[in-house]
Amino acid sequence: MAGLILGPMARWASTSEATVWVETDAACAVTVTPASGGAATERTFEVEGHHYAIVRVSGLPEDTATPYTVTLDGDVVWPEPDSPFPPSTLRTHSKDGAAHIVFGSCRTAYPHHPPYSLTPDEEGVGRELDALRAIALRMAHGDPEEYPHTVLLLGDQVYADEVSPETLAYIRAKRDTTTPPGEGIADFDEYTRLYREAWTDAPIRWLLSTVPSAMIFDDHDVIDDWNTSKQWVDEMRATDWWDRRVVGGFMSYVLYQHWGNLSPDALEEEEIFRKVKDAGDGGVLLREYAYQSDREVEGARWSYCRDIGSTRVVMIDSRAGRVLTPGERSMVDQGEWDWITEHATGGFDHLLIGTSLPLFLAPALHYLEAWNEAVCDGAWGKFAAKAGEKLRQEADLEHWPAFRKSFNLMCELLREVGSGGRGDAPRSIVVLSGDVHHAYLAEVGFPAGSDMESRVWQATCSPFRNPLSTKERRSVNFGFTRTGAYIGRLLARSAGVPPPPVRWRFQDGDPRFDNQVGTLELDGPKALARLERAILSDDEDHTHPVLEIADEHDLT
Questions:
Q1: Full-prediction pTM beyond 0.85?
Q2: Helices (H), 404-541
Q3: Residue of 386, 366, 392, 377 lying closest to 498 (CA atoms)
Q4: Res 300 pLDDT > 90
Q5: Half-sphere exposure for 90 (CA within 13 Å, toward CB)
Q6: C-alpha distances out from residue 270 to 265, 267, 301, Å
Q7: Measured between alpha carbons, how far is 437 from 479 in angstroms, rounded to an integer?
Q8: Among residues 288, 301, 393, 414, which one has the fewest Cβ atoms lying within 10 Å of its Cβ?
Q9: CB count, 10 Å around CB of 383?
Q10: Cα 507 to Cα 509: distance, rounded to the nearest angstrom
């Protein structure tokens, strides 16, 4: 009898269809039966002893949360007996209606009790309270018709270089951790354990079985500073352990995140998906594909698009598809950029652009990164370029401003869409991101004569669960000060970097440093952004955090 290892996960949804992803412990037929009728069955496919299925369910009622069950070879495995949670649902949306979206990034899978639930100042292993867990627990007591239409996970769904005690114990029992990669993830097998631990926490598992999820990776899904620069890449590829890590990272990303991001029609167009399904064991095929994905920027596209009601979501890969040649740096290759400009258009009430890395940073950090790129490219000479490269890696100076060509192109794209140059201008354009372990909301202003019809914002929400220490928070706060911005501006000017083509203004109280979760409520002309932080409940139960509103803002 086959058993359920991970899932079910509600991944993609439309007005009448949805997909459900599962991992099982043996080959079997997976059947998803919605309460509205119309069961759908898919056989699992195998990758190196692991079994997966993505089941397409059709005929669902529009804009409804429909309960469902999952069977493996006819045996009911979901919902689990005596579950404390409501039935899992397939959440559809309406064609031109509202979009209720939860978003954020950066979640470590540490236990939910002290010392792990304490602050990093109190305990080195402290990661405080899990904001994603808090919203799952609140949803479990709510009306299913009020469930979000999507949860956007904007990077660092797993930490391959910061594993939990349970995964660390598994790694230590398996191999020698005194040699690289040490106590980090080494290969595909260990990655499967990492995902299993991150997504089997009961409230998180229920949340992901109930709300469609859209994901994109960031550096910690593979390793800190992933693809910071060409020199970094060359150094990593010269080691004797990197290939196993990065191949395992891409293999697991494809299986656990990417394929579920796609619509069923788009998934069937993926040649590697069809080949793996038909291979018996698709491990060799997927390994070759993963290796090529690391070695060749062109060929694999991780960006994708979803329409939810009258809102379009364009999710951009700002990590794996970079062009890193000094003097020619770009956040994405030309083919990827062409795809972005094709899909990031008007004609929707709201346009959301998801990117794990913020486009608009604290002023001081923006200028510092732009200065660093210029120095690395020789603005201050060869000796300074070497020092700049070292600083780029050590200080994580690799966000959009550190790829100034791409930053400027993205600003111009926002202007074109917002001024009606690519179809009817949306009422709002919101860039969503994470990564930086603090949250803020910034309104973007364009030069006079831009004829902007859309309000343009950057909404950054990070972390779900991985807060900064007090010392780290002081450094971030300095980046938001006038003094920090002034110093950064002088640095950038000294390297010949011109001012950015737009300006942006933060809201009172920014930045915010708690474990937190963001929400967008988009409905016709209305657009509301909310930020909530995880706090202890009245009974101080660390396993049952609650959410408190930190900020709320009308975007239109």
A1: yes
A2: 404-418, 470-479, 482-494
A3: 366
A4: no
A5: 32
A6: 9, 5, 10
A7: 14
A8: 288
A9: 8
A10: 6
